[in-house]
Amino acid sequence: MKEVELGASYTHVTEFPGNGATKEQIARLYHRYRFAFEFCKGRDVLEVACGAGIGLGYLAKVAKKVVAGDIDEKILETAMNTYYGQADIEIYKLDAQNLPFKDCSFDVVLLYEAIYYLPKAEEFISEAHRVLRGNGVLIIGMVNKDWSDFNPSPLSTKYFSVPELYQLLSQRFSTVEMYGAFPASANTLKDKVISLIKRTAVAFHLIPKTMKGKEFFKRIFYGKLTPIPTQITNEMAEYLPPIVIPVDSPNYQYKILYAVARNRK
Where are the beta strands (DSSP E) in 87-187? Predict the structure, then answer.
């Protein structure tokens, strides 16, 4: 396992407002928070590794309180500027593996597209379990490492398969469900050609390592890009609920995976 220093900068691998994005990329951003939306109603919510905080305002519309944080101070500047003066959103610099909160402080903990950056993911899961109340829920979202077009982040430490993440969460949580979203099948000839080119580029390490660098290739294959918004808004993209998937085998059918773990004290 590759170690990443806690002081490392994640600015070049983070989705920022204003970055050019494909239609599906925008849909994935929305999907994360739309999926969490129902879990957060009237509850105290913590988003760990919140990045630029794109989903915080959306969740704050229904949550009792939203607390968020990230290890990268530069990234947090965007979130802090966006929600400055908003009393129901609190933002802190924090380490996912050593959360600065008391036991039983939250009802929901979210971690999106970040577990693979953690040197010791099991420590985050232990911390999430600690800060959750007895009826609490942990939701983890991540790209599927077993998707044929998977491209790892240059700062990643370890990506988890469905069984690996299920086993890890089951050590702390009594109930763990796994979900898949965004089918991986290529339906059109264009989709198949792009998939082949992408897999070839990944194999030969030709994919740019930064979000900005990837925009050039996206424009070639997908045309005009849409700027990532400052905040998620309701119905900004189509939402299809994720599908429950088996937990005992790797999944090849979906691009995105979610784990929903319910607390056991």
Answer: 89-93, 106-112, 132-143, 175-183
**Residue 12 in tokens:** 């070049």
- CA-to-CA distance for 26 and 225, rounded, in angstroms? 10
When computed from its CA atoms, the radius of gyration of the chain, rounded to whole angstroms, is 18
Task: Give the per-residue pLDDT at 84.
Answer: 96
For 171, residues 6+ apart whose C-beta sits below 8 A from its C-beta are: 122, 125
* HSE-CB for 2 with a 13 A CA cutoff: 11
Q: Which residues pair with 181 in a beta bridge?
A: 256
E strand or H helix at 169, and its extent?
helix 162-170
Residues 144-184 pLDDT 10s: 999 999 999 889 999 999 999 999 999 999 999 999 999 99
Nearest alpha-carbon partner for 28 in 67, 54, 48, 57? 54
List b or e across 216-248, with b for residues whose CB sees 16 or more CB atoms inside 10 angstroms.
Answer: ebbeeebeebeebebbbeeebbeeeebeebebe
**Which tokens sit at 101?**
């909160």
Q: What is the pLDDT of residue 4?
A: 37
**Per-residue pLDDT reduced to its tens digit, 94-136:** 999 999 999 999 999 999 999 999 999 999 999 999 999 999 9
Closest CA to 58 of 49, 48, 66, 69: 66
CA within 13 Å, CB half, 128: 30
Write down the pTM of the prediction.
0.90
